[in-house]
Amino acid sequence: MTAAAPRKALPVIDPGRCTGCGWCVAVCAPHVLSLQTEDASAWGPKRSTLHDAEGCTGCALCALRCPFDAIRMRRLKTPPAAT
Fold first, then answer.
1. Residue 82 domain-assigned (yes or no)
2. pLDDT tens digits along 24-53
3. What distance in Å separates the CA atoms of residue 59 and residue 10, rounded to the nearest whole number?
4. Distance separating alpha carbons of residues 57 and 80, to the nearest angstrom
5. Does residue 23 sit within a domain?
6. Which residue in 41, 52, 67, 70 is deepest, having the highest Cβ count within 10 Å?
7. What is the CATH number of the domain that holds 18?
């Protein structure tokens, strides 16, 4: 069994640009994005949220698919190589 390649970036969602259209959620293969309401109620505007950073593969499909340019990929700091 081979180890999965380490991800190089995570999505960062701009709540000011996100309309809650759901395109990013639809293309997310590992299902780590979801639409959440802005407050505790079940009603109201929804925004995309990264709810499982560990499960994210960093593929950037969400950022590419977003029609409102609300998602940017932030590079992760790479850990030092083990010696």
1. no
2. 999 999 999 999 987 777 788 899 999 999
3. 9
4. 20
5. yes
6. 70
7. 3.30.70.20
Distance of alpha carbon 66 from its chain centroid, rounded? 11
Identity of residue 51: H
What is the number of domains present in the chain?
Answer: 1
pLDDT surpasses 80 at 60: yes
Nearest-5° Cα angle at 46, 44 to 52 = 140
Q: Which two tokens stand for residue 24?
A: 């990013």
Query: Looking at the DSSP assignment, which residues form a beta bridge with residue 47?
Result: 36
Token pair recorded at residue 80: 């030092």
Q: What is the pLDDT of residue 42?
A: 72
Q: How far apart are CA 26 and CA 62, in angstroms?
A: 8
Tell me the CA end-to-end span of the chain in Å, nearest whole number. Answer: 23
Within-domain flag for 20: yes
